[in-house]
């Protein structure tokens, strides 16, 4: 079933610079590069070939038509009379959360995401791109050879691990700084004790004062 | 008695006999065919790719559709349409110029696009197809070179299926006066020089600039489409009206 969607004309400024088209063409190139680097994606997307997914990014006020055909993804601005087999509409944060396909139904229940048409199409795209696995050593080896590629990959992995560890330590430090109860003021019991001692001292001073006054009078 | 023996049309700023225009335009494109793509990128700073993307975005093309890419030249639109219509669809790359078709066919073959593309040399004024044959007809940067544009529009209307749409991507009239002046300077000074340097052919690019100025503006072309029978005729200005994308439907 194809959904008929009517939208407004693009504003003049958008037409002049054609930024949405330009940005989409860049995204299309990146995604198609990912398809080349992880050929398993081709099989995953095969079931949605020629099915059109319309994605409305609410906070960007943009509609994007996505079609997988001829082993390539085709992304176009969908601004008028765009028909689609499945349409999802959400803010960009919600769309990014779709990296986890299990979130799809949860986000619909939370009214953060509208979906019309065939749910399977959205699920297929979501699960395909959530499981992208690029064999970087193999891709690097095409350019610099097997051994250097493996070494470089291991170094990068090690750097990544160290980075993760450093980040984790930094996070823990910040958490302890912001969350832990630090002794920047005295405890209420200490204050109470101080007050009692103060009162006792005051009593003693008053008593001494009286005795001194009495002695002065006696002289 | 022979009617209108002196019937004339424009070829850029020149006035020529109607019978001569097609062959004069053909000479221009025979001359530029091999450098056509590189010149397009240079002259438009690559923006012609975005104009064409917008055309595809407006096409509503789906699997199984039959598409005619008229004056398709080196096949930029055909390449995308061929992928989007799939093996059950069909794309006809039509051009009046055999040199352009040859370059287009070679380019598309090199891209591995075979099987659902036909290459047909044709005159837009007398399209060699039965009535109601296509779901979509596009003509990108070609209509201004056609001698009798009204006749061509009627011919396109005839072969379009009911529910089908025509998209005309063509140079048009800039909306802002300042942009118009800058564009004129670029077209008549820089563009022919660029043509001379890269393609060793300044005359063809002088013709390009002149033919753009002689082409009907947005509203006139829209009225011509309505007169030819198209319904819901609208247009969208791209890059400030330097180019306009006209759209019309047949019901």
Give a verbal description of the structure.
The complex is a heterodimer of chains A (219) and B (251). Chain A is built from 9 helices and 7 strands. Chain A has 219 residues and is an alpha+beta fold. A 5-stranded mixed β-sheet of chain A has the order 4-3-2-6-7. A two-stranded antiparallel sheet of chain A has the order 1-5. In chain A, helix 7 packs across helix 8. Chain B is an alpha/beta fold and 251 residues long. In chain B, 46% of the residues lie in helices and 23% in strands. Chain B contains 9 helices and 9 strands. In chain B, the strands form 2 sheets. In chain B, strands 5-4-3-6-7-9-8 form a 7-stranded mixed β-sheet, sandwiched between helices. The longest helix of chain B has 23 residues. Chain B is globular. Chain B starts with 7 loop residues before the first strand and ends with a strand. The mean pLDDT of chain B is 86. The chains are: A alpha+beta (219), B alpha/beta (251). The interface between A and B is medium-sized, with 28 and 23 residues.
Topology:
The complex is a heterodimer of chains A (219) and B (251).
Chain A: E1 3-5, H1 12-17, H2 19-37, H3 40-46, E2 52-57, E3 62-69, E4 72-77, E5 82-84, E6 86-90, H4 92-97, H5 103-109, E7 113-117, H6 119-130, H7 136-144, H8 146-179, H9 188-218
Parallel strand pairs in A: 2-6
Antiparallel strand pairs in A: 1-5, 2-3, 3-4, 6-7
Chain B: E1 8-11, E2 14-17, H1 18-32, H2 36-44, H3 47-57, E3 66-70, H4 76-85, E4 90-95, H5 98-110, E5 117-121, E6 134-140, H6 149-159, E7 160-171, H7 177-199, H8 202-214, H9 218-227, E8 231-238, E9 243-249
Parallel strand pairs in B: 3-4, 3-6, 4-5, 6-7
Antiparallel strand pairs in B: 1-2, 7-9, 8-9
